[in-house]
Amino acid sequence: MTVPTEEIAAKQPVAVAPPVGAARRGAALDVALARPVVIAASLVIALVIPLVVRSFIAFQLTQVMVYALAILGLNLLTGYNGQFSLGHSAFYGIGAYTAAIMMHRWDITYFWTLPSAGLVCFAVGFLFGLPALRLQGLYLALATFALAVAMPQILKFGPLEHWTGGVQGLVIDKPDPPFGLPIDADQWLYYFTLAVLVLMFAGATSLVNSRSGRAIKAIRDNPIAAAAMGINTALYKTLTFGVSALYTGVAGALGAIVVQFVAPDSFSFFLSVSFLVGLVIGGVGSIPGCLVGGLFVLYVPNIAESVSTGLAGVVYGVILLIIIFVMPDGAAGFARLAAARLAGAKQPHTTEGRLP
Amino acid sequence: MELLLQQVMAGLATGGIYALMALAVVMIYQAIDHLNFAQGEMAMFSTFIAWQLMQWGQPYWAAFAIAVVLSFVGGVVIERVLFRPIHNAPILSSIVAFIALFSILNSGAGYLFDYTIKEFPTPFGSKPFLGITLISTHQAGMIGVTLGMLALLYLFFRGTRLGLAMRAAAANPESARLVGIRVGWMTALGWGMAAAIGAVAGVLIAPVVFLEPNMMLGVLLYGFAGAVLGGLTSPGGAVFGGFAMGVIENLAGTFIPYVGRELKLTIALVLIVAVLMVRPSGIFGRRLVVRV
Amino acid sequence: MNRLTRRTILAAAPSALALASGLPAFAQKKYDAGVTDSEIKLGHTAFYTGPASSYGTIGKAMAAYYRMVNDQGGVNGRKITFLSYDDAYSPPKTVEQTRRLVEQDGVFLMASPLGTPTNSATQHYLNQKKVPQLFVATGATKWDDPKHFPWTIGWQPNYQGEGRIYASYILKERPNGKVGVLYQNDDFGKDYLKGVKDGLGDKVKAMFAVEASYETTDPTVDSLIVSMKAAGCDVFVNTGIPKFAAQAIRKAAELDWKPLHIVSSVGNSVATVLKPAGLENSKDLISDFYLKDPTDPQWKDDEGYKWWLGLMEKYYPEGDKTDVFNVYGPSVAATTVQVLKMSGDQLTRENVMKQAASLHDFTVPMLLPGIKINTSPTDFAPVKQVQMGRFNGERWQLFGELIGAVSG
Fold it and tell me: What's the CA gap between C113 and C45, in Å, rounded?
């Protein structure tokens, strides 16, 4: 098998590995106990929240979960597999439009749009991943960027207007709670999204911890060594592309249902940039970090605006810079540091993922 | 045939903008190995500085010179203050820092100079060039400046010790340090130069597209695409790529029936990706062998 | 202050109005959310950031106007609280901000939110929640649909209507011309395109040559103008937003191409479009108007202009006094205030929509003389009339009669 020879090969974005060695052993017991407790507590809080807050907050939190899921998709590809993508807004858009078209034109219940969106996006992602095998780093970024830029244009394209609604977009109805449950539509959507989120996060966790997951990570860390060890890098890379697209596509479908409206310009390149920012803030290569990323993407622009309408962008940029300075590995990296410090172990010096 | 020629010329004229931007993109890529998302906004901000100086009564060339110098200094300062502290962070974090810079510059410019479009003068005049109405003297001047800068950069990097030191620092920082090159300052210098080139680009582009805070976004995207097409390791390739982008997009819009008009950017990008399939490092990019 | 006395006086007013509009007369006040004895909360979204942010000044001008109204005593004694949020021209963000305004901030109604796709995203929600989407700041044709969207009403002459007006002018002046249209590739742009094509009727096949679209992220539209000239167009309908309209005007001049050049009401501002494009290059441009251009010396001593200038100088001094967007904002806001005044103490959402649908020959200071606002339960298009003008190199010269139906 030929060895990749592009100059850029060594400079792919790499994720940060968790602390190894003594620190890990010492903290292992605490972590083993802490994790399930934290997860259980979070679930309880998540279940109770919509019952005590206004519908609008439930709506916002639902959006947070949608973004977190989209970011998780990007994380699988970029964080765990090292393939840089600027094109996830396209997958999000494809998922959203799949759901919208199915609900608007064919009157299919919202429930079935999610797996459909997932399948469609998996196919697109996989097919895109095939030629992407030849590209590295910024060249891959451009290819994915091309996808992101093409999507709104394709969605606005005249002959497809009958399906996509063209520039006018499509309106969809919010689903009602089933079985006549005594909650309103917003709360139901929250729980529905939460269920999907938990399911897919669990799926992602088991994927990255499995043999396949290790292969995927190995390809990120050292593609040549991975190939030398017999991992079918081409297959894994394209499959990861597909799975990553699937996750973001399902998020897109959920997003469409939550917002009740899809329009081509909502899925522009800027959305890809938001996902990227959310990914980094949450922590590349961390699954729970995606939730932090989702919170960031939704709330921080609002916070910036409330500080100063005229200089909202400046405030946003400054907040971003402060976070990068204080937590260069994102929230997850920061949490890991804090946990390790609390466990009392000395911080080992890791060099993975650092520039020389 | 006539139409083809006209559209090619018009494409070259617009492509001149992209070529200039692509050059700035490749410059900074060579210096710091990342794509600077904020490159366009830095250029835009520099152009606003020049504009403001002219509003305050400075003649064109004085304003231009001051703006370029200030941009150079600004680039160095940004590198030292913003990016040096995080140079050990993962690459993606650096990219987010660029995004932050983008946001700050864009919003800041909007706040200081508001969003209505402003005219920006050109030193080359706007008459038809050599009697051809399709290219104005300004656009011809722009192409000339691009090629001139390209030549200067080539001479600098290939022919001077400083240029060599910069290339060494970017290609292999550790070895460069071992031979006594101050890698940190080389990176800062690279930033300064890229910012200065960006300022020149902005000042030449503004007369065509009108000065306003959002003027560079599209230009940066096209410039980036052009740079990648040409090869990120080759400034000449980047300039070629920029021109190619302008021509391809124009021809796609004019000649591909029905689809072309609405999807011209898509088609241009698809073509570039197709080219990358055949030459994954861009048309003129160098392919280095990585020894395991 | 003796509230009883105030109340009895005020109680008579809505009764009188109610009788006039056919409602049963109530003696006591009725409020929906967002209204108290001393306050009316209005919600608003606009794009203060993003590629179309030059429109953000409309929101600021509106805010200035509401401040002025408050200083002059408010609406029937109630101060207006104007909450305006940024949506960066992104429909999902608009939905979020609108929901925040309605559900969290508890506003009474949405007062002239800005943008076509942005308002499209919230139209369904607001109609479902029965919250007025009042006098939306966009000219899309879809806002005039009281049957399906009884809570949404537009304000300005709609884009399709304008397109048809351009088409009939073309048919009159250049019946055998070849037409090229520059439009933005979105909801708003395509509305104009449809209007022009519909207006050309069965001559559209013969006359229509080039439809050239651009995206807001495109750096320049120069090559599109080249195509039009190359295709032999001698009529050019330029519906671009200021930046692109100006680029097109200038490029046409550079190419020495002199078609019958019609620029839309979106891109005809002397200060923000024609000056950057070059006043000489803009000679003989044709456009349609419903507002007074603040740079036009003929309005120097006009009462309306003096009123507007006073507003700008006192309440929005940093605003551009040559930008027609800053005329637009207060004009729409003044219509909102009128409807609120007409509602008296019956400040329910339903009543406000009723009043909005009963405007009769209402004018605001900066509308062109003769233009009257009329609405009815089947007619949700307040401003329908425009007047054509030709640019003489210095200013716009209005000509002809007011065009457009007056029906109410």
Answer: 5
What are the distances in angstroms from CA B164 to CA B35, B150, B154?
A: 21, 16, 11
Q: Which of A259, A265, A240, A299 is nearest to A93 (CA)?
A: A265
Binding-face residues of B in 201-240 toward A, CB within 8 A: 221, 224-225, 228, 232-233
CA distance A89 to C362: 46
Are the Cβ atoms of B17 and C226 closer than 8 angstroms? no
Q: CATH assignment of B2-114+128-278, given 1.10.3470, 3.40.50, 1.25.40, 1.10.287?
A: 1.10.3470
Residue C145 near chain A (CB below 8 Å): no
Distance, CA of C262 to CA of C166 (rounded, Å): 7
Question: How far is the C-alpha of B74 from the C-alpha of B12, rounded, in Å?
Answer: 31
DSSP assigned state of C220: -
CB B124 within 8 A of CB B140: yes
Q: Where are the domains of chain B?
A: 2-114+128-278
Q: Are B13 and B80 in contact (CB under 8 A)?
A: no
Residues 42-101 of B with CB under 8 A from C: none
Structure tokens at A191: 């729980």
Residue with tokens 């305050």: B56
Whether residue A134 and residue B224 make contact (CB cut-off 8 A), yes or no, is: no
DSSP one-letter code for C142: G
Q: How far apart are the first and last CA of chain B?
A: 52
Helix (H) or strand (E) holding C287: strand C286-289
Amino acid type, C58: I
Which residues of chain C lie closer than 8 angstroms to A266, CB-CB? 90-92
Name chain B contacts of C185, Cβ cutoff 8 Å: 262
Among B residues 152-171, those touching chain C with beta carbons less than 8 Å apart: none
DSSP A350: -
Enter the ipTM.
0.86
Three-class SS string for chain B? CHHHHHHHHHHHHHHHHHHHHHHHHHHHHHHHCCCCCCHHHHHHHHHHHHHHHHHCCCCHHHHHHHHHHHHHHHHHHHHHHHHCCCCCCCHHHHHHHHHHHHHHHHHHHHHHHCCCCECCCCCCCCCEECCEEEEEHHHHHHHHHHHHHHHHHHHHHHHCHHHHHHHHHHHCHHHHHHCCCCHHHHHHHHHHHHHHHHHHHHHHHHHHHCECCCCHHHHHHHHHHHHHHHCCCCHHHHHHHHHHHHHHHHHHHHHCCCHHHHCHHHHHHHHHHHHHHHCCCCCCCCCCCCCC
Measured between beta carbons, the chain A residues lying within 8 angstroms of C95 are: 259-261
Q: Cβ–Cβ of C276/B10 closer than 8 Å? A: no
Instruction: Give, to the nearest 10 degrees, the angle between helix A110-132 and helix A233-259.
Output: 150
Chain A interface includes C187 (CB < 8 A): yes
Looking at beta carbons, which residues of chain A come within 8 Å of B287? 5-7
pLDDT in tens, C247-276: 999 999 988 899 999 999 989 988 889 999
Q: How many angstroms separate the CA atoms of B159 and A297, rounded? A: 47
pTM score, whole prediction: 0.86
Closest CA of chain A from C187, distance in Å: 5
Reading the block at residue C327, the tokens are: 């005329």
**Beta-carbon separation of A153 and C215 below 8 A:** yes
Instruction: Check pLDDT > 80 for residue A15.
Output: no
Kind of pairing between the strands at C386-391 and C396-403: antiparallel
Q: Which pLDDT score is estimated for C108? A: 95
Tell me: pLDDT of A281 over 50.
yes
Nearest to C365 by CA among C330, C322, C314, C406: C330
Mean pLDDT of the B216-240 span:
87
How close B126 gets to chain A, by Cα (Å)?
33
**Beta strand ranges found along chain A (DSSP E):** 170-171, 261-262
Within 8 A of A168 by CB-CB distance, chain C residues are 120, 142, 187
